Write the C-alpha cells for this entry.
Amino acid sequence: MTGKQQPRLEAAGITKMFGGIRALNDISLEVLPKQIVGIIGPNGAGKTTTFNVITGAYRPSTGEVRLDGKAVTAEPSHLIARAGISRTFQNIRLFGDMTVWEHLLVAQPHSDFTLRRLLPTRWADPQAFRRAEEILEFLKLADVKDRIARSLPYGIQRRVEIARAISARPKLLLLDEPVAGMNHDEADDIRRLILTLRDSGLSILLIDHDMAFVMNLCDYLYVLDFGVMIAQGRPDQIRSNPVVLDAYLGHAT
Ligand SMILES: Nc1ncnc2c1ncn2[C@@H]1O[C@H](COP(=O)(O)OP(=O)(O)O)[C@@H](O)[C@H]1O
Ligand SMILES: [Mg+2]
C-alpha cells in the first residue's frame, strides 16, 4: 500500500447558513477506518449542525460529504443510514411506547420503515432475533428488554439509543454528547463501550464538551468555535493549544 488511507468519512468545505447566520463556515474533517474522532467546542459552536449535515437532516449551503469516497451530500437521511452512517441524538429520541427489545428489532437493516407494523416480520426472523439478543447482552440491556424504553432512567435510555444505532450495522457511528448528564462511572462504561465498538471495526465521530472525556478516548480532535474550525490535532496537541484554551475559557461553558 502506498499513499494515504481512504477515509471512511470526509466532510469537505461545509458551509451551512440559517437565514443570515453562518452556523458552519467552510469546515472540513475526516474520520479514518477504526478511528475515534472527537468534535469539541463551546455551546452553539455548530457541532450538532455538523452531524445534521453529515446525516442528511440538513442540506449544506456549500461543500460535500463522502462516505468511503462516495458523495452522499444531502441525500435523504434513510439512504445515508442505509449507506452506513448511524447516529444518536443530543436530546434522546426514542420510539413512542416501544420496548427496548422492539427498538432493537425494528432498527436492523433491510427495513423500509421503522414502525411497529414491521415487527410481525421481525418476530419471525431468527437472524434479527439473534442479532437483537447479542446487542442486548453487549449493551447490558438484557434486564430491561421488555420495558418501555422511554420509561427508563436517563443513562439507560442513552444506552438504548446506542444499541438502536448499532442495530443498523453502521460503518460509522455518530454520537452527540453520549455522556451528557452521566456520572463518572456511567461515563466510563460508555467510554469502554466506544473502545469495544471501535475494536469491532466501527469508525466513531463523537461530540462532547467534556475535555477530559474526549482527551482520554479520541485519536484525533477537531475544535469548533462560532462555526469555524479553530484547531485540529491529536489530544496532546489540542490540550496545550492556546487558541483552544481561549475559546473554552472565553465562553465559560
Ligand atoms: N434549524 C436551525 N435553524 C436556525 N438556526 C439553527 C438551527 N440549528 C442550529 N442553529 C444555530 O446554529 C448554531 C449552532 O448550533 P448547534 O450546531 O446546535 O451547536 P452545538 O451543537 O455546537 O451546541 C447556533 O447558533 C444555533 O442557534
Ligand atoms: Mg449540540
User: Anything to note?
Assistant: The pocket of adenosine-5'-diphosphate (ligand 1) is lined by residues 18, 21, 23, 41, 43-49 (CB under 6 Å). The beta strands are 9-18, 21-31, 36-40, 62-67, 70-71, 85-87, 172-176, 203-207, 220-225, 228-233. Residues 146 and 166 are 19 Å apart (CA to CA). The chain has ten helices and ten strands.
